[in-house]
Design a protein that fits this description.
Structural class: alpha+beta
Order of helices and strands: EHEHEHEEEHEEH
Radius of gyration: 15 Å
CATH topology: Peptide Methionine Sulfoxide Reductase, Chain A
Number of strands: 8
Strand order of the largest sheet: 7-6-1-3-2-8
CATH class: Alpha Beta
Number of domains: 1
CATH architecture: 2-Layer Sandwich
């Protein structure tokens, strides 16, 4: 099992999106790479400095990191700084946060390809994970519990997975 932390704007939709792919074994939403304290959602919304992030545990024999990151880049605007869709603020910044430096070659390969497509530097961070604090229970699998909840990810992207 491997782990990667993905910040892609609103964590509700990114979690639902990633959960649909075979090989994604577990996801958890939380707050990452901010000051070293466990914030509340209200503190995050008041610019605590944490990013809404999805912890992704995946089976690399089923889905590789490169494929996982290709899916990630499919649903974010990689040129948007501290914003995805209508969500604005530092907590909506995008980033790939890693805990294993062995993942860097694959991460850098995907970033280079995405930057070439964009024709300019990306606004997506690529940095080691500093910290991760689990979000409140009501945020976990939020769009499953609240199907009408807002997210910048269009509905059609939730129907492309291969999990039965």
């Amino acid at each position: 099992m491997q782990t990667i932390y993905l910040a892609g704007g609103c964590f509700w939709g990114l979690q639902k999106f990633l959960d649909q792919f075979a090989g994604v074994e577990r996801t958890e939403v939380g707050y990452a790479n901010g000051p070293d304290f466990a914030p509340s959602y209200q503190e995050v919304c008041a610019s605590s400095g944490h990013a809404e992030t999805v912890l992704v545990e995946y089976d690399e024999s089923v889905i590789g990191l490169e494929k996982l990151l290709d899916f990630y880049f499919l649903v974010i605007d990689p040129l948007s700084y501290n914003r995805q869709g209508m969500d604005m603020g530092v907590q909506y910044r995008t980033g790939v946060f890693y805990t294993d430096e062995a993942q860097l070659p694959e991460i850098k390969k995907v970033f280079a390809r995405e930057e070439a497509k964009a024709g300019r530097p990306l606004a997506v961070l690529c940095e080691p994970l500093k910290n991760f604090f689990s979000a409140e229970e009501y945020h976990q699998k939020y769009l499953e519990k609240n199907p009408g909840g807002y997210c910048h990810i269009p509905q059609r992207f939730y129907e492309m997975g291969d999990k039965q």
